[in-house]
Amino acid sequence: MTENKIIYACTKHIEVAIDDYVNFEEKAPQMKSVTDEHKKCTYCNERAQYMLLP
Ligand SMILES: [Zn+2]
Residue 36, SS3? Predict the structure, then answer.
């Protein structure tokens, strides 16, 4: 794992996204709001409201 993984999530999937992130990276992510309305949730096609990054 060399690249940082960024996960985008809608409000429905934010909890799943955090779980995935922690499982994958073994640490807690920073959560930021997404202002770009073209970003889609990683888990569905809703507009992403949050992004998780290192
Ligand atoms: Zn979603």
Answer: coil
